[in-house]
Design brief:
The structure holds 3 protein chains of 3 kinds.
Chain A lengths: L4 E14 L2 E14 L3 E5 L6 H9 L7 E10 L2 E2 L5 H8 L4 E4 L3 H4 L6 H13 L3 H14 L5 H5 L8 H13 L5 E5 L7 H18 L2 E6 L2 H7 L2 E6 L2 E7 H6 L4 H10 L15 E14 L9 E14 L3 E5 L6 H8 L7 E6 L2 E2 L5 H8 L2 E4 L13 H12 L4 H14 L16 H13 L5 E5 L7 H18 L2 E5 L3 H7 L2 E6 L2 E7 H6 L4 H9 L49 E2 L5 E2 L11
Parallel strand pairs in A: 3-8, 3-9, 6-7, 7-8, 13-18, 13-19, 16-17, 17-18
Antiparallel strand pairs in A: 1-2, 1-4, 4-5, 9-10, 11-12, 11-14, 14-15, 19-20, 20-22, 21-22
Chain B lengths: L1 H28 L4 H6 L5 H10 L6 H13 L13 H36 L4 H15 L2 H15 L11 H6 L9 H8 L2 H38 L2 H8 L4 H11 L2 H23 L7 H10 L3 H27 L7
Helix pairs in contact in B: 1-15, 5-6, 5-10, 5-13, 5-15, 6-10, 7-10, 9-10, 10-13, 13-14, 13-15, 14-15
Chain C lengths: L1 H25 L1 H23 L34 H37 L1 H15 L5 H10 L3 H28 L2 H9 L3 H37 L11 H8 L7 H29 L1 H5 L1
């Protein structure tokens, strides 16, 4: 099999040299890809994935990088021995191309996408301006963008994330590269858009016969897209082989852990003991943000971030909120937390409407509801000591002696499993998982009733994820907490949530308990959402469901049912009538004209 | 875009009004008796009173302010207490020499500074980079008036290469007829083909010009370098390289276009510094420009002329900033 | 018990300092400037003790010895009153450094809180502060200082105030920009969710995170301020005789130029070296405090 290898890496060792000394970032002894096949590398952040991609193209910054030894062979030709000029003239763009992670920062903001494409084509294929333009328009069409002439004239910031990523793909393939490196190409995209990009990539790969090296930190993603897979841990490929083989018979402990963390649970157990009393009652909540001329004149329009949302959360419950970016979940939560004032509607916490409290009562109210954010790096003030960070809520709300305050801090640290002497350290001395624990300790400092968890495990490594989730579950039991859990990771929602609300464009489109939502999703959006997310059980990209079109703007949401512009089951009615909330058996609610008194389910 | 320009101009006018107000307040707080100054050292009290009424100093402050502003809009900046001429006329006479100096120095700064900054960034951490960085930092550390004296010492006293001062030698003024179009000798003589005057004027302007240009060269080179370096670290530059684009193209077309904004700011700033450096240096070179005018006005506390120059400079500066802002707004990312 | 806790709090900060010093060590140019800067401060503090002719610094004169070129006794020669120029230049270090520190300090005191408030609170407060800042920034550098000293009257203290009043807008703009980006950070939202009062958020959360670029800017500005003080004194607006300020000395020296060239050259050299050292230091400091460098 090695002889058939089109792309090979042999004994590659790359260092990163800092004042602390040399650190080996990559140590790959063997990696081989056959022509026309797709090879996926799965690794977590910081394990050297991007370093690998840049090294192959000769774009690694040296210093501080250092290629110590090894060979990178493309068609038996060692890339590491080539001069910069050779790489520029023959390899980059022509033989090997790369798709980057963030399409916004990868496109030059001051040139139109058309100009950028034409430039690349002109140079690589030696075309005239006119010829290059025609080619460019062709490529834009190949990546399935409607109205190529219009796209050609646009600047990167005028396109949506999905459109930009398609342009990046077009740029990469425009000059006939046969080897494509895709470095987390769908990282910043919504799940539904991700599915369509993956499908596009697969199609292009098959029709152009391109060999792909696909790099990601998501095992399910890689397993759905690729033929072969390599697990990257600490710079080494610890296990590699055909996808099904690795998934069915993992040998390394790390691989097994990765698989376990993304596997869907068969059992959906009842998790919490929910009481009858309603803790939080959200009634017809709306939050609009004005845009347009700010100072001194009326706003031109409003971003309708949250548009008439009603929810009831009972004591002891975990409510999961699921939705893609722009659906309003963050705004909803921030409004519930009174970080924003509502445009209209009420939020009744423990019997009081939080918006009608005076200043003193408002501050008191804050003790009852706390939040743990997604970003463990910036959610703790980098200039504060840990003890001050955790003590802040206590010192704001209570008059307390510093000795006793310190004791409380120690208690809280112990509770989340962090050593006491962490109190005198700075946040940057801790890992992501540890920082998240500190954030949890801070949230619990004043014994809140309701704790909001905003994507608590999205930004931390897979080892810590399970630990954090278990910690959260334990603490919830111990302190009889109620949780609102926001997550785009269905696995996490499945593990933790009792009830789930699906949001789209500022509205709740479906609501029910875990069982109902996961076993029998009703709303077309919910169904599409679940089916567009790659899982280990799905074998190929073709099985993913995609939702066509872009998410409409929240400034001018579509009339009638907001989802009608992209709904696979759209009817004429949907464009005019606004669906009401229909409650079916067992408290399962859905807002869709397909269901209701007149239609057949 | 048009709306932005209009809004920006309005903003500029508000700022200008603020500047005028501040200068007015400053002017009224100068602790000297302008009326007495106006009349002269042997004035009688009644003459001083008379002068006060004439100069409008007895009116209530708000009235004085309104008069001041109305006069300004008609181009009346008052009358200098020292020269007795309308400040506007004084300015008309003294601006061209300074303008000449500033424009020439500014051009030198751009022609040397920008390429220096670009090559410095391109050859980061190599010898050229270190040398030019040292030079740039050195250039902005030099006291301009000291450099002026130093140059005079070396190039006049020791080497005898350049004249001590003045714009043009006395013989030339006697022997030849000086063309007067803009008042800027270099330009005027060049345009009328009067080569003798041109050479003479050039010979006189070199020393002051180079003196003043040093600081801006350093500034422009440094800021061009750091702006370019920042951009070269961006993802889209790495991406452009990965598509196989030639390095020269990446630098000169892709990277540089993104520096437009910072460059506009740098240039405006350096024009401001050049202008101010001129003030310090003109007295040393006996250059009959604005700087000389200000230096003498300051010593004699001639407030109308101080304020006149301040307003003129501030207005020019506001205009330059306006142009810079408009250039920055041409960045397609800014949604106007 | 309390003392122990205090030491514990210091430990992480000392670690940070050690790291900074380490980084300092790596760039030889910055290291050299750092040591020269310390030398300058020492000179400033001990100038009266070190000067060969301490009396000449202010009033004592020896008119018979006037305008002598540099010798082994008078390293920099003598001035028109027979005073030893070397001693005066040495003392001038104290004058310049003190003036610069006080001016920058005052400018920071005004500019930083304004910027933090404007950036964090936004709205009309931001607009008003920004307009005022714009107005002050519309005066070309130095010109405003000249105009202000004209009202306040010539003198070193007034020069300090004038400089502070011309310099503060830069810090306001800088801090405001930082505050605006810090505002979006989660730890600020966390503090809001906790119920921390606004003033505490501004001054305890946001300001400490904006300090880095301000320190860099301030140390780079030291050089510029020293130049400005010298320029003002040169114009007759700053230090008044008999204070041995470098710019003032150059101004006086013009009457005897170019014959008594040492009178103009040496004070100017002192200005140049001092400003250069601070500029180099500021530049190096910028690299040290740059978060990207620190991460590596």
């Amino acid at each position: 099999m090695i002889d058939l290898a089109y792309f090979e890496i042999k004994d590659l060792k790359v260092n990163h040299n800092t004042f602390e000394g040399k650190r080996t970032v990559l140590d790959i002894s063997v990696l081989a890809i056959e022509k026309g096949k797709t090879y996926g590398i799965v690794g977590e952040s910081g394990t050297g994935k991007t370093v690998l991609a840049l090294t192959i193209l000769g774009l690694l910054q040296c210093p501080p990088g250092e290629i110590v030894s090894g060979e990178i062979l493309l068609d038996k030709d060692n890339l590491l021995t080539k001069s910069k000029r050779e790489l520029e003239k023959c390899i980059r763009g022509k033989k090997i191309s790369m798709i980057f992670q963030d399409p916004m920062s990868t496109l030059n903001p001051v040139y139109t996408v058309g100009q950028q494409m034409t430039q690349v084509l002109k140079q690589n294929k030696n075309l005239t301006e006119k010829e290059a333009k025609i080619e460019a328009l062709n490529m834009i069409q190949t990546v399935k963008l409607a109205d190529p002439e219009d796209i050609y004239k646009k600047y990167p910031h005028q396109l949506s994330g999905g459109q930009r990523q398609r342009i990046i793909i077009a740029l990469a393939l425009a000059c006939g590269a046969e080897f494509l490196i895709a470095d987390e190409p769908t990282r910043n995209l919504d799940v539904t858009i991700q599915a369509s990009i993956l499908k596009l990539l697969k199609e292009l790969q098959e029709s152009f016969g391109v060999t792909v090296l696909f790099i990601a930190n998501n095992l399910s993603l890689v397993s759905v897209f690729c033929d072969d897979i390599g697990i990257l841990y600490d710079g080494r490929i610890i296990e590699q082989g055909p996808v099904r083989e690795i998934l069915d018979n993992p040998k390394e402990a790390y691989t097994k852990l990765l698989i376990k963390s993304v596997k869907k649970q068969d059992e959906i157990s009842i998790k919490s003991k929910i009481e009858e009393e309603v803790l939080l009652d959200v009634v017809n909540l709306k939050k609009y943000f004005p845009i347009g001329e700010g100072f001194m004149s009326k706003p031109k329009a409003y971003v309708k971030a949250v548009d008439d949302v009603s929810l009831k959360i009972k004591k002891g419950e975990v409510l999961g909120i699921v939705g893609e970016s722009g659906c309003g979940k963050s705004t909803l939560v921030n409004t519930i937390l009174h970080l924003y004032n509502s445009t209209s509607g009420e939020v009744i916490l423990d019997g009081q409407n939080i918006y009608s409290l005076n200043k003193k009562e408002s501050r008191e109210m804050r003790k009852k509801i706390q939040i743990v954010f997604q970003d463990p790096f910036w959610s703790l003030n980098p200039r504060w000591l840990i003890k001050d960070i955790i003590a802040e809520p206590i010192s704001v709300h209570e008059k307390i002696e510093s000795a006793e305050l310190l004791n409380r801090v120690f208690e809280l640290l112990e509770m989340v499993g962090i050593d006491k002497d962490a109190a005198y350290k700075y946040p940057h001395e801790f890992s992501g998982g540890q920082r998240q624990r500190i954030a949890i300790a801070r949230a619990l400092a004043v014994n809140p009733d309701l704790v909001v968890l905003d994507e608590p495990t999205s930004s931390i490594d897979v080892f810590s994820q399970t630990q954090i989730l278990n910690l959260l579950a334990d603490l919830k039991e111990k302190f009889k907490l109620t949780n609102i859990l926001i997550s785009h990771d269905l696995g996490v929602v499945q593990k933790m949530a009792d009830n789930i609300a699906i949001m789209y464009l500022g509205k709740v489109v479906e609501y029910g308990n875990s069982d109902q939502i996961f076993k029998e999703p009703l709303h077309p959006y919910t169904k599409a959402l679940f089916n567009s997310i790659p899982t280990l059980e799905i074998n190929s990209v073709k099985e993913l469901v995609t939702i066509e079109g872009n998410v409409p703007s929240a400034i001018n949401p579509p009339d009638g049912c907001r989802f009608h512009t992209r709904c696979p089951k759209v009817m004429d009615r949907c464009k005019i009538d606004i669906p009401e909330v229909i409650t079916l058996s067992g408290g399962h609610q859905v807002s869709c004209l397909l269901y209701g008194s007149e239609s057949n389910v | 875009m048009g709306k932005y320009v209009i809004r920006r101009i309005l903003l500029g006018l508000i700022v200008l009004l603020g500047v005028v107000t501040i200068t007015f307040i400053i002017a009224r707080m100068i602790p000297s008796d302008p009326a007495a100054k106006w009349v002269g050292p042997r004035a009688t009290p009644s003459q001083i009173e008379q002068a006060k009424i004439e100069l409008g100093l007895n009116d209530p402050i708000p009235v004085q302010f309104i008069n001041y502003v109305t006069d300004l809009t008609q181009g009346d900046l008052g009358r200098s207490l020292r020269t007795r001429q309308p400040v506007v006329d004084d300015l008309k006479a003294y601006i061209p020499p300074t303008l000449e100096l500033v424009v020439l120095a500014f051009l030198i700064a751009i022609i040397i500074g920008i390429p220096l900054g670009i090559y410095s960034a391109k050859m980061k951490d190599r010898l050229l980079d270190h040398v030019s960085r040292l030079f740039s930092i050195g250039a902005v550390s030099l006291p301009t008036f000291w450099v002026a004296l130093f140059f005079q010492l070396i190039f006049y006293k020791l080497l005898g290469l350049f004249p001590l001062g003045g714009r043009i030698s006395t013989e030339t003024t006697i022997l030849y007829d000086i063309p007067r179009i803009t008042g800027m000798l270099i330009f005027d003589s060049f345009v009328t083909g009067n080569w003798v005057i041109f050479k003479d004027a050039l010979w006189h302007i070199i020393l002051p010009c180079v003196t003043i240009a040093l600081y801006p060269i350093g500034l422009v080179a440094r800021m061009t370098r750091s702006a370019l370096l920042e951009i070269l670290n961006e993802d889209y530059i790495t991406a452009a390289r990965s598509y196989g684009l030639k390095e020269s193209l990446v630098l000169w077309r892709y990277a540089l276009k993104n520096t437009l904004g910072s460059t506009a700011i740098v240039l405006t700033l350096s024009l401001g510094y050049t202008l101010v450096n001129t003030f310090l240096v003109e007295t040393i070179f006996s250059w009959p420009g604005l700087g000389n005018y200000v230096a003498t006005s300051v010593v004699t506390l001639d407030y109308p002329s101080i304020m006149g120059v301040t307003i003129f400079s501030a207005t020019t500066y506001i205009l330059l900033n306006l142009i810079a802002d408009i250039i920055i707004a041409m960045d397609p990312r800014i949604r106007l | 018990m309390e003392k122990n806790k205090f030491i514990e709090t210091l430990k992480p900060r000392i670690k940070e300092l050690k790291f900074s010093l380490y980084l300092l060590n790596r760039n030889w140019l910055t290291k050299v400037s750092f040591y020269i800067a310390i030398l300058l401060f020492l000179l400033a503090i001990f100038s009266q003790v070190i000067s060969p002719f301490p009396g000449h610094i202010m009033d004592e004169a020896n008119v018979s010895q006037k305008l002598l070129p540099p010798t082994s006794v008078n390293f920099y020669g003598t001035d028109e009153l027979g005073r030893d120029i070397f001693s005066r230049v040495l003392y001038g270090t104290r004058v310049s450094l003190t003036t610069a520190i006080l001016s920058v300090g005052l400018a920071l005191l005004i500019g930083v809180p304004l910027g933090a408030i404007a950036g964090t609170l936004g709205g009309w407060i931001d607009e008003v502060i920004m307009r005022i800042t714009d107005i002050f920034l519309s005066f070309p550098p130095l010109l405003l200082a000249i105009a202000l000293v004209s009202i306040l009257g010539p003198g070193l203290e007034n020069a300090m105030i004038a400089i502070a009043l011309s310099w503060w807008p830069w810090y306001t703009r800088l801090v405001r920009g930082q505050a605006i980006s810090m505002k979006e950070r989660k730890f600020v939202q966390a503090a809001e969710a906790i119920g921390t009062p606004t003033w505490k958020i501004i001054f305890k959360h946001i300001v400490p995170n904006t300090i880095s670029p301000v320190i860099v800017q301030a140390s780079m500005d030291m050089g510029g301020v020293i130049l400005t003080v010298a320029s003002l004194s040169f114009l007759g607006l700053g230090a008044q005789p008999p204070i041995p300020e470098w710019g003032l000395m150059i101004s006086t020296s013009r009457n005897y130029f170019p014959d008594a060239w040492w009178y103009s050259i040496f004070p100017g050299l002192a200005i140049f070296i001092t400003v250069l050292v601070f500029n180099l230091l500021g530049d190096g400091l910028r690299e040290i405090l740059d978060p990207k460098t620190r991460k590596n």
